Amino acid sequence: MQVLENTTVKGRVLDGSGDAVEQDIGGWVVMPSDHWEAVKRNLEK
Question: Is 25 exposed, middle or buried (0-12, 13-18, 19+ CB in 10 A)?
Answer without folding.
Answer: middle
